[in-house]
Amino acid sequence: MPTSPDSSAIPECQPQDAGERAAWRVRVQALASAADGIRQASDRWDAVSDSYCDEDGWPVDETGYADGKVARDAAAWEHVETFLTHGPEVLAGVRAAAQPADYLDGPISADLLRLRGIDSVLQRAGEIRCEWDQVIALMEGSMPGSRELYEERAREIRNSEGWHYADELSYSGAALARAADHLTDRIGVDKSAHTGRVQAALARSASGQRVASVTSPPASAASDPPATRRSR
Prior knowledge:
With 232 residues, this protein is mostly helical. It has helices spanning 15-49, 62-97, 100-104, 109-113, 118-142, 147-182, 191-215. The chain starts with 14 loop residues before the first helix and ends in a 17-residue tail after the last helix.
């Protein structure tokens, strides 16, 4: 059938691009919700933690204080799992899509700077999850009758060790979600080139994680926390 001479010049949104962006938005929203969930867990604890302590900050209700921290850490770890699921891919996508000008000035320049230490935070959180998986595997084979009791304690230890990284992700992870949201329109454009940039960004991230794990403690690379953070 005859077509308009100008019809070939009209850009069309490719279905795969639309699907890729839709999946990207889902991941970004999940990360934003996870960062907000960690902040809410921290705020709930901060609102009541002083009631368990004396004027000098020492716990007077040790049971209530301990139970409150256990609840906070458990709520926060659920959101850390979301970051472990979606964070590395979104981080690689952001680094691939961001341009030099985005780092120098613009609406996401500050957020991009906050991502400098997020690799080591995600790496350490992933190591804690791996350690947890190994503990559970050992329990399944060695203590089937009393697993439930020991599993609960092991879970509390995992959550407690993960709290520091959860707290960091409530800020650097929120920055990642904001930057990723801003860059959504660049996702899926020139797919072959974008895929190459993502793979390169993933390789750089993996290399940076290996260096960080050898040369310095993971927490030292994290971005400077805002002064308003209180959770003990």
